[in-house]
Amino acid sequence: ARPVARNGVVYAGCLDGKVYALAANTGDKLAEFDLGSPLSSSPVVAGNSVVVATESGVIYALRPDNEKRRLISIEEKVYAPLAAAEESVYVHTARDSLHAVDARSGAIREFHIK
Asked: What pTM was estimated for this model as a whole?
């Protein structure tokens, strides 16, 4: 997964189920978030958070102060890249569903592609 940077912090997701927050200027580890399932797509910036999806379909909002907030579980496999616009994160699942998740509240809208 490709890392993403926000406010001098680089977030890198790994197949070990963790996301690491690193200081962009020094590489020092600021935080480590254990999500319990491999990440299948790159993190995205949405509003004031960095949002990630696990392969098992759980969506989290992360902040560099070690805050990890579970937004929602969509109970579908996620293998496609996430996209973000303002406070919404778009998640395409293995069942060809597209979900729009609010990065603040976890509210979700589902769109059927087929």
From this structure: 0.88
Beta strands at 97-102 and 108-112: parallel, antiparallel or unpaired: antiparallel
Q: Please state, in angstroms and rounded to a whole number, the distance separating the CA atoms of residues 24 and 38.
A: 23
- Burial label for 91, CB within 10 Å (0-12, 13-18, 19+), is buried
Q: What is the pLDDT along the chain (114 residues), one digit of tens a residue?
A: 789 999 999 999 988 899 999 999 999 999 999 999 888 888 999 988 899 999 888 999 998 777 899 999 988 888 888 999 988 999 988 887 888 999 988 898 877 666
What does the alpha-carbon distance between residue 111 and residue 114 come to, in Å, rounded to a whole number? 9
Q: Are 71 and 106 in contact (CB under 8 A)?
A: yes
Q: Residue 46: enclosing H or E segment and its boundaries?
A: strand 44-46
